[in-house]
Design brief:
single chain; alpha+beta; 6-stranded mixed β-sheet; 5-stranded mixed β-sheet; elongated
Length: 505
């Protein structure tokens, strides 16, 4: 009973530290704080060496000790359950979707950048929540790893790097494999961690499509008050910058002409191999048609300014020229169903091809102004275009490129030699200027070589590219598989979604 009380305190401390998970369009809601359920931590002490899903060998067991490291070694595969019942943590739906659990990367893409609209820094709180209780029996390296440059990083991210294989630079190359074999690799495989490497990875039965995802899997976050607006009395005011200002009811907007458009609804903070994404069909009226119904724009108008019922501060400005080019719409339905209050009902501003952070919810007024995007937060410049290579947003969030494996869904899934492994997931690059998804890129050698599957020219650049493929391993062992999108504009990232699979004889 004493241990349960202690662990309950751990969960409470962690939840108080994590009060915001920024997502596609953060809004606020009021919820009553749930009474925390005691969480049981696995008692894996530092003396209990375990190679985890890596090959059992001296190096992987006594040096890497992967089975006792990372968040999942204590918390399992659903970190979100630790904070889901608390008012300080405000996603409307569980992060787990597409058959996935939740991982530390689901948290860090929002809590790491430390910018307006993101989550707070939680490193200090999490460290104290672990070290100031008796339930945690690990040490610093239960959660962390040290890079060759001396940087302390999360083990859950380090495990997908070449350093785990012993050599960070081109560890998947034939030259390095030859050198490792010459030294006598007692761990098996092609790296000193025992990982099998496949150069120029060949796949079978590769298929690409742009399927619509289920609303059940669509991530939704509400960072403030949910607005329950009466649809019958709802009005949208279009005032500044048009020749004939008007106020529209929802029925009057629908009478202007209805369009349905598929687009990737992706949270601006969604990281690689995370689930804050969906490919959704939105129904609404084009911004172009609303402007026409108001007699057109006055001369010199360059920016769309949006007002909302909840007064949310971000994602409220965008350039008229860009919005019209991307087919911006005022949407009232998704996948054929009316928007829910949490999704911004009755009307939401949607810009196909751009991250959904800028898709304003609870739209009440639109004005067109002559100033060039007077945004004071800087967020609009990040989420309506491509960040400079090497910038924090490029390295940490990796937006606007994303990918994930939905199958295999978790590290360490086991297959029999001779069995066919099904690969399934998505890639996406934001549709902006010359940028769009040009290829599905897959690797089984730490990114030394990439197998590129070109996206058909008739695919819609606003939507994700969903891939399925078959692979039959020819040797037993542990493999790390990676996927990332190719971008037509030449934008690239060193980060990819990765998963480990185990093939047994």
């Amino acid at each position: 009973m004493k241990r349960k009380r202690i662990v309950g305190i751990i969960v409470l401390m962690l939840s108080l530290a994590v009060f915001c998970l920024a997502a596609c369009q953060p809004q606020t809601r009021e919820v009553e704080a749930a009474e925390p359920e005691p969480t049981t931590l696995a008692q894996s002490g530092p003396t209990e060496r375990d190679s985890g899903f890596l090959p059992e060998a001296d190096y992987t067991t006594n040096f890497i000790n992967a089975g006792n490291r990372g968040c999942g070694s204590c918390h399992g595969d659903d970190l979100y359950s630790l904070v889901s019942g608390y008012r300080q943590h405000l996603p409307y739906k569980d992060l787990a979707a597409y058959g996935q659990g939740t991982k530390v990367t689901d948290c860090m893409t929002c809590h790491r950048p430390q910018a307006i609209g993101g989550g707070p820094m939680i490193g200090e709180a999490i460290h104290q929540a672990h070290y100031n209780n008796q339930a945690f029996t690990g040490n610093c390296f239960t959660c962390h790893a040290t890079t060759n440059d001396g940087e302390l990083v999360l083990f859950d991210e380090y495990i997908y790097t070449g350093e785990l294989g012993g050599f960070p630079e081109d560890v998947g190359s034939p030259e390095w494999q030859e050198w490792i074999a010459l030294r006598g690799n007692v761990s098996g495989g092609d790296t000193i961690a025992g990982i099998n490497v496949v150069n120029d990875w060949q796949l079978d039965s590769v298929e690409l499509d742009q399927r619509t995802s289920s609303l059940e899997d669509l991530f939704c976050s509400v960072n403030g008050q949910v607005e329950n607006i009466d649809v019958a009395s709802y009005e949208l005011k279009v005032d500044g910058g048009v020749n004939n200002p008007r106020t529209f009811t929802l029925d009057e907007l629908k009478a202007l002409g209805e369009v349905t458009k598929g687009t990737c609804a992706i949270c601006a903070g969604n990281g690689f191999d995370c689930t804050q994404v969906g490919n959704i069909e939105y129904t609404g009226v084009l911004l172009e048609d609303v402007i026409e119904a108001c007699g057109g724009l006055k001369d010199g108008m360059v920016t769309v300014q949006r007002s909302t019922a909840d007064g949310f501060m971000n994602g409220l400005y965008s350039q008229i020229e860009e919005d019209l080019a991307e087919g911006a719409m005022l949407a009232w339905a998704q996948n054929g169903e009316p928007l829910s209050p949490e999704e911004g009902a009755p009307l939401r501003y949607v810009v196909p091809g751009w991250p959904a952070y800028s898709w304003t919810k609870y739209l009440t007024q639109i004005d067109f102004i002559g100033e060039d995007r007077p945004d004071k937060t800087g967020w609009n410049d990040w989420y309506t275009g491509f960040p400079p290579e090497g910038s924090d947003i490029y390295n940490q969030i990796c937006d606007p490129l994303d990918s994930a494996f939905w199958t295999p869904s978790k590290d360490g899934q086991t297959y029999k030699l001779g069995d066919t492994v099904t690969l399934e997931g998505y890639v996406w690059a934001a549709q902006c200027d010359e940028h769009h998804t040009s290829a599905v890129r897959l690797s089984a050698d730490y990114g030394y070589s990439w197998t590129d599957i070109e996206v058909p020219a008739d695919f819609d650049g606003d939507q994700w590219v969903y891939f399925t493929a078959k692979w039959t391993p020819t040797e037993p062992g542990v493999y790390m598989l990676s996927v990332k999108p190719g971008d037509a504009g030449g934008f690239d990232t060193q980060t990819a979604a990765s998963v480990y699979v185990v093939v047994e004889e």
